[in-house]
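Narrative of accomplishments. A recurring question from our advisory board has been how the design workflow behaves on a single, concrete structure rather than in aggregate. To address it, we present the structure tokens for one chain from the evaluation set, followed by the sequence designed for it. No filtering or post-editing was applied between the two.
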């Protein structure tokens, strides 16, 4: 019923949000309900789950573990309704600021965006009312102009002594310019080897094609080894109990390979830091898998690939998204400077 407030102003009662379904038993369950209910693509779900787990610690007022401490750390158990604690926004702002000082801006901004999407979805379900991230600002992220690897760096990468699986994975990433999660979600039955292409679930859930070249094409038969179904890239041991059926190879009982960014970084530390002393290498960072996609698109742009083709290769929706790739890389700039070197022209 309505009431008269101060000054005789008509005051309407606050509307109560009726939950669309019973709230889940825990925050972790709420995360899983969001990933399935919001239609998050399988290729993106792993990143979303990691980000929301990170926020799980901060939503309980604790800093998220980083580095080696994060491995095997069990996320806190709490009710999703705890997000409506009126004291949480202030605590969360301090924790987010501290984390932003330790992490790169791109990671912090991505995690914040994912958290806000999930919170918005939970609000629409009627499980929570507020958004404790309001007031937390995105961090400025100055662009890194060195993400595209030089041609000699790519050549050095192919000379590394690594397993057939890793070499095939890296080759496919570079030749297709696909995202790592998209390629890891490939099944053997998704491949069309004679056409050098495969069917992937892209970011956003769309089904699209990726295309590779002879390098990956020559390695794939050895990797598949006669298999006809199941995950393309497999771990080296049997799948643990509880692994989803879709992520287990029926013929070998091995699990689908997960995102192995750490292995790639470890393998490329010397390439990324050529002047480092051997005893210092373990403390240095290598390359990330995303740099293979970035490099492929940059090299395409340098070689005159048209904008429509770059859009098709990258599967971006807007031209603006291509700006980070369509810049001449270090080799192209070096050639430009060398060709205009007066001393070089005189020697010629």
């Amino acid at each position: 019923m309505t009431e008269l407030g101060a000054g005789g102003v008509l005051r309407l009662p606050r509307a109560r949000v009726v939950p669309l379904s019973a709230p889940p038993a825990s925050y972790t369950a709420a995360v899983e309900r969001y990933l399935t209910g919001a239609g998050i693509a399988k290729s993106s779900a792993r990143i979303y789950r990691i980000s929301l787990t990170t926020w799980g610690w901060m939503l309980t007022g604790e800093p998220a573990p980083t580095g080696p401490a994060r491995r095997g750390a069990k996320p806190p158990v709490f009710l999703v309704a705890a997000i409506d604690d009126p004291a949480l926004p202030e605590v969360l702002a301090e924790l987010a600021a501290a984390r932003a000082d330790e992490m790169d801006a791109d990671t912090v901004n991505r995690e914040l965006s994912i958290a806000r999407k999930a919170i918005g979805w939970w609000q629409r379900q009627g499980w929570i009312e507020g958004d404790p991230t309001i007031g937390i600002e995105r961090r400025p992220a100055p662009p890194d102009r060195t993400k595209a690897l030089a041609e000699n760096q790519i050549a050095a990468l192919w000379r590394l002594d690594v397993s057939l699986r890793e070499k095939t994975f890296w080759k496919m990433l570079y030749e297709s310019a696909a995202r790592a999660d998209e390629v890891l979600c490939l099944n053997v039955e998704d491949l069309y080897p004679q056409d050098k292409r495969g069917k992937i679930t892209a970011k956003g859930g769309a089904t699209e094609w990726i295309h590779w070249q002879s390098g990956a094409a020559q390695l794939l038969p050895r990797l598949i080894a006669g298999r006809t179904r199941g995950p393309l890239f497999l771990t080296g041991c049997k799948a643990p109990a509880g692994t989803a059926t879709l992520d287990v190879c029926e013929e070998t009982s091995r699990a689908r390979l997960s995102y192995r960014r750490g292995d790639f970084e470890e393998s490329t530390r010397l390439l990324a830091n050529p002047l480092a002393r051997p005893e210092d290498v373990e403390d240095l960072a290598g390359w990330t898998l995303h740099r293979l996609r970035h490099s492929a698109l940059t090299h395409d742009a340098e070689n005159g690939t048209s904008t429509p083709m770059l859009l098709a290769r990258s599967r971006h929706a807007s031209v603006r998204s291509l700006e980070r790739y369509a810049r001449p890389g270090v080799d192209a700039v070096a050639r430009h400077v060398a060709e205009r070197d007066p001393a070089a022209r005189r020697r010629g």
